[in-house]
Design brief:
The protein is of the alpha+beta class. Helix content is 51%, strand content 17%.
């Protein structure tokens, strides 16, 4: 496990350094965020929400990435900026992949980004989505994928790990707007049972 941790640590260090130099705010999301807040699970990619705000900043970020170190396509990145979509960075040495997701302009996504937290993980200072927002986005992914057990297990891991430290009222306040109340009701009986 140490070598996996060293591999992802190096990858995250490189990407967050390039983002910092380009003055581009970011937030780790997805399975890495659920590992930070809940139970570890294996993955070969990292979801990172970014908010470059301008094309110039995004271009600066892409220019920071040495071509011999990682693969990224500038035109795909620029398209993602225009459409609030995503693009990839692939680490040439390790095969790690980052899905860089442009922050959406919907109210939930804006608030989620503002609520991100600075945490220490694997000895790195990182901005990570709050556990409540990770739960909500995983509920969305589960709904969109027809009930993903992987997403549900990640949610249960966070609920069981943090328990009453979670702001359940905040989660409840978004369930209907995000159309995830049925998913939320589905994971409730799974908590504790899987611990």
């Amino acid at each position: 496990m140490g070598s996996v941790n060293e591999s992802i640590r190096g990858f995250l260090l490189r990407i967050t350094t390039w983002l910092r130099v380009a003055d581009t705010p970011y937030m780790i999301a997805g399975s890495v965020a659920s590992t930070v807040h809940g139970r570890p699970r294996s993955t070969q990619d990292v979801d990172i929400v970014i908010h470059p705000q301008t094309e110039e900043r995004l271009r600066t970020f892409i220019k920071e990435i040495p071509k011999e170190r990682a693969y990224v396509d500038l035109s795909t990145a620029l398209d993602a900026l225009r459409t609030e979509d995503m693009f990839n960075i692939i680490d040439m040495d390790t095969g790690w992949k980052a899905d860089l997701i442009l922050r959406k302009s919907r109210s939930f996504s804006i608030g989620e980004f503002e609520r991100r937290r600075r945490v220490e993980w694997l000895g790195l200072p990182l901005y990570v989505a709050s556990p409540e927002d990770v739960v909500l986005t995983k509920l969305e992914w589960s709904r969109l994928s027809g009930g993903s057990e992987r997403q549900r297990r990640d949610i249960v891991g966070i609920l069981d790990s943090l328990g009453d430290k979670l702001d359940l009222a905040y989660i409840e306040s978004w369930l209907d707007e995000l159309h995830v109340r049925a998913e939320w009701n589905h994971v409730q009986p799974m908590t504790r049972r899987e611990a």
